[in-house]
Every structure is written in C-alpha cells, then in structure tokens.
Amino acid sequence: MADIVIRNGHVIDPANQVNLVCDVAFKDGRISAIGTNLPKAREEVDASGCLVVPGLIDLHAHVYEHATTLGVNPDETCLARGNDNNRINFTSFFHWYINRSHHSG
Q1: Cα–Cα distance for residue pair 105/98, rounded to 1 Å
Q2: Right CATH number for 4-52 from 2.30.33.40, 2.30.40.10, 3.40.718.10, 2.115.10.20?
C-alpha cells in the first residue's frame, strides 16, 4: 500500500513521457507509481485542476544585494532576468546592478 496518492492532477513528467490527468503514488518518500486508478493509499490528496510535476524541484531564487536576507553573496551568484520581475524586484535589480555596471567603466 502506498503512503500517499495524489489523485486526478494534470501530471507532467517529461522524463517518462507523461502529460495527462492521472494519479501519482509515493511509498517511503519516493514515487512508486504513476497511472490511472491506482490502489487506495494511507493518505489521499485530490489535485483536480492542479498541475502535478513529480521530481521537479524549483531551485530559483531572487537574490539582490540590499534587497534580500538569503545569506547569499550576490557577487558570487549567477543572476538571470526572467519575466517574473515585479516592480520592487526590478527596481532593486536596476539600481544595484544595471546602474552600477554603466558607471563602473
């Protein structure tokens, strides 16, 4: 018996070529099955209307000098500008990085 089954979510798993509404089962902290009509588990979660992306870990973070307390040195961190910068983040990014780069000679 699985510990947890996430049911009826839109599962996207490129590694296993899965892109459909189905269930994902977990046993001992690991994915044990992906499919439809999986057996009952100790705990069940209804993910109807949600994306389920097994194995995907979102490692991104917003790290700006004077604007974050993550304990990361921005001088040693690779930064990439994406489409998720809101006004506050972009203002800080512009002030501390873009502006400084124009004046650093």
Answers
A1: 12
A2: 2.30.40.10
